[in-house]
Design brief:
Rossmann fold, binds adenosine-5'-diphosphate, alpha/beta, 15 helices, 7-stranded parallel β-sheet, about 400 residues, binds magnesium ion, globular
Length: about 400
């Protein structure tokens, strides 16, 4: 690319797609969009490394829509992603992008949803299919999905998908597409498995790296707090009340903690709900929708259940448990500070977690400041000054 892309007009999109982008309120492409859309439009394979919240869905969604042949009765593009929630979310974003192209059929299929409903949707021959690998393979086996005319295959959150043991499924899916299919991969990290799949299925891929730095780095003020056991709940509520937080995500490492914490918050009369893998799919969708629409204030979730979930104005993220993996820390706090807003992240530490948090700081290059609840129940910084005042004085953004 010789020309630097700074506006959507430069991409020479069709009026329908451009109009939809405007309707969505986007004024300029994000860096990953500026770099991905031109080579994808030219038919190149792309491997893009970009942190969450950088606009990857539209980065592939826009070229997918631009390249569709609406008269075709075959699936032309398949997007595979690791979780049902992500599936739903990508489908919603693609439908918004296709708002002015009512002929475009986009269908999502994922595990946990009744297969009958999906069969009916598939009968209408989608142009774009968004799927989790397992359910997609299931349909391919039944003969209800045929990928023999697919033009583009997108692997979203490839590292996560391949790590979750889907690598064999993903291979089977890609093997069912034509040999010259455009393969586009998005990943927060380029893991060994991602490299393997790229090597096997991509040709002359355009490599894109978007760093989580400068303008791209979400503006998140990060804090840590020594607090264990029963105190965590009290301390968290103190923080929520003092900062008057209205939209909060709380991460726990285990389903049971999620479930219990959700119940306890509700018993205290707080508006909270929970999201974890054991909750039936229909209810999970309802919970997600409720949170997005602001029907309740506190969403408690496990990492997997919250993967890729995109709610724009989460004010604060709580790491009720410190995550086991450094990367999860970034994924979790990336739920806040999205779309150029500011965010706050709190991590609760047991005395034993000191080494873990040091490791996370090193890995993420984050500045995480100590806070505490003082004798009067106020949330204070290390020097005893009020956190609330600090934030009001423009302590946001840090880093
Ligand atoms: P990622 O997949 O990289 O985590 P998403 O595709 O979910 O990111 O996008 C994150 C948020 O940014 C979404 O709310 C999306 O609607 C919004 N967004 C996408 N593109 C733009 C843009 N060009 N300008 C402003 N906001 C955008
Ligand atoms: Mg995404």
């Amino acid at each position: 690319m010789t020309e630097e892309i700074t506006s959507f007009e430069q991409l020479e999109l069709t009026p329908e797609v451009l109009g939809a982008i405007r309707k969505m309120g986007f004024s300029a492409p994000t860096p990953v969009q500026a770099q991905t859309i031109p080579p994808m439009l030219d038919g190149y394979d792309v491997i893009a490394k970009a942190p969450t919240g950088t606009g990857k869905t539209c980065a592939f969604g826009i070229p997918l829509l631009e390249c569709l042949r609406l008269d075709s009765k075959d699936i032309q593009a398949v997007v595979i992603c690791p979780t049902r929630e992500l599936c739903i979310q990508i489908t919603e974003e693609l439908r918004q992008l296709a708002a002015l192209l009512p002929q475009v059929r986009i269908v999502s299929i994922y595990g946990g949803q009744p297969i009958q409903k999906q069969l009916a949707a598939l009968k209408k021959t989608p142009h774009i299919l968004v799927a989790t690998p397992g359910r997609l393979l299931d349909h391919m086996g039944r003969g209800t999905v045929w990928l023999g005319n697919v033009y583009t295959a997108v692997l979203d959150e490839a590292d996560e998908m391949l790590k979750m043991g889907f690598i064999r499924d993903v291979r089977k899916i890609l093997n069912a597409t034509p040999g010259d299919t455009q393969v586009v991969m998005f990943s927060a990290t380029i893991s060994r498995e991602v490299m393997d799949v790229a090597w096997e299925y991509q040709h002359n891929a355009v490599e894109i790296h978007v760093a989580a730095e400068g303008d791209n780095r979400p503006k998140i003020a990060q804090f840590e707090l020594l607090s264990s056991g029963e105190r965590r709940l009290t301390d968290m509520c103190r923080i929520i009340d003092e900062l008057e937080l209205k939209r909060v995500m709380v991460f726990c490492n285990m389903k049971n903690t999620v479930r219990r914490l959700g119940d306890r918050l509700r018993k205290q009369g707080r508006s909270a709900d929970a999201l974890h893998g054991d909750i039936p799919q229909s209810q999970r969708n309802k919970v997600m929708e409720g949170f997005r629409e602001g029907k309740f204030e506190i969403l408690v979730a496990t990492d997997v259940a919250a993967r890729g979930i995109d709610v724009d104005d989460v004010e604060a993220v709580f790491n009720y448990d410190i995550p086991d993996e450094n990367e999860y820390y970034l994924h979790r706090i990336g739920r806040t500070g999205r779309a150029k807003r500011h965010g706050i992240a709190f991590t609760f530490l047991s005395p034993d977690d000191r080494f873990r948090i040091r490791d996370i700081k090193k890995y993420t290059h984050s500045e995480i400041r100590d806070i505490a609840i003082d004798a009067n129940g106020c949330v204070v910084m290390e020097d005893g000054s009020s956190l609330k005042k600090y934030l009001e004085k423009g302590g946001l953004p840090t880093g």
